[in-house]
Sequence to fold (355 residues):
Amino acid sequence: MDKLETDAKQVLNRLGDLSSFLSTLDVASDRDECFKIPLDIMQKTMSFDVSVLYKITNAVDDTLLLKVEKIFDPDGYRHDLVEGRRLELDLKDPDPIYINEVRAFRHKNVSSINVPNLGCDIMGFVYLPESFGGGYLFGGDFCGNEASVRDYEASVCEIMCNFLSTILIKTEFENLAVYDSLTKLYNSRKIKEEVARVSSRFERKTGSKACVVMCDIDHFKMINDTYGHLQGDLVLKEMGALLSHTMREFFDVAGRYGGEEFLLVFDETDQDQALTIVERIRTAIENHGFLRTDKTGKPIDDEFLTITLSFGIAENTKTSGIKNATEWISRADSALYASKENGRNRATVWTGDLS
Fold:
């Protein structure tokens, strides 16, 4: 049985749908969503029995490492492909079932060698720099004897790959302008802008109240000196995740202020409420076991580090006498210094005698 003839006009219409969809999609919040239409086009519009998406996780020497991210295989033709499965492919002498995966990766393009009843008949390469986490492969498989992949079908696959690569790279660059790459929190510039935005509101809204909180990892230099900088980076990464998960959605934002310092903004929150929130965060961090790694960054089984944070809280209202965002942050920094001086792993609220 040969592969069904595809309708070129319908394929072009679907490409238009894909272009419109990607232009409005918030890829940063749901990257997987951008692959749904390409995989659907491959399977349904271009009449392949199976469509599959791989994440390129690494390429070491002559080995390509892939993870099956998505597989649409309603009739169960490809038992070797299961979502979440990791594959190791030989780049020099690949198994024929994965010939197109290897060729698409090596040539950074579309490969459509026909291997009857084996492997994917067409596979495309979606480029992303390694610093952005590496790229993807996606394609389709006709499970009969002859795929008869046409030139325009290969071109459609290449167009979809280019669409996806463009939108993913654009999204990653936008993220770099706002988010810290290690902690995934706002970067220093963005969190300072957030403080300035909230601060400016006090000039026109008399009932507003908000707090900023400076926090600092206790004895962070000792962590780096004792366990190495890879361990220090992992602590920062985990700390970013903990702060994100323990803060209130919609009201609070967090950013990496610099090094091991973080800046939190609690909008519509007075200093008593802020202290309650901070104590909850402080306790959660104190009770958390941070992964312990060896010098190469590999996690060590059943070994954890206890890490603590010190906090400084500064409230802002119409009558606080704070002139700008810099002065507001400075008050929180003074309160943080007091926490450090008084034993660490505690929170201090700014008062006039700390200035």
